[in-house]
Amino acid sequence: MPSDVNPIPHLKHRMADLVVKTAPGMKVTVRQLAHEFWFGTAISSGILSGNPASADKEKYLAVLKENFNSAVHENAMKWYSTERRRGEINYEEADACLQWCSNNGLRMRGHCVYWAVDQFAQDWVKKLGDQALRSAVEARAIDLLTHYRGKIDEFDVNNEMVHSVHE
What we know:
The protein has helices at residues 54-67, 79-82, 92-103, 123-126, 130-147; strands at residues 40-43, 70-73, 107-115, 154-159. By secondary structure, the protein is an alpha/beta fold. It has a single domain (40-159), classed as TIM Barrel (Alpha-Beta Barrel), CATH 3.20.20. It has a four-stranded parallel β-sheet with strand order 1-2-3-4.
């Protein structure tokens, strides 16, 4: 079949040619050991820094490592987790997630730089005027991306920025 003809039209992405050169009549076995497609999950914020029961923690991390090749921070990187009080920045929980992923061969996606769920926005952020808020948003982006430069390749910048209000 010509290489430009896809035998399964709905599978037009994530396909590639494989060329194996060998002597005539040789038996060839091909086994895929890994893939480039990110298949991930969120890592519970407290699993690495909290005190879950040891057996639960071990099982959680084993399932994570067996079934996924990437992960995002559930809440550990969100602004309300890293800067509860203005100017007091703490990446300890998010760093622990990144370190575990790095040690276990999982790629990490930074989740998330900004999250607009009102009930989780810090009071100090809500009280800022326009210019102070702009400065705080810029400072957050610069600090977070500088901290993770070279460690995380991509980030969810805005997450859930529009919410409807039901009365």
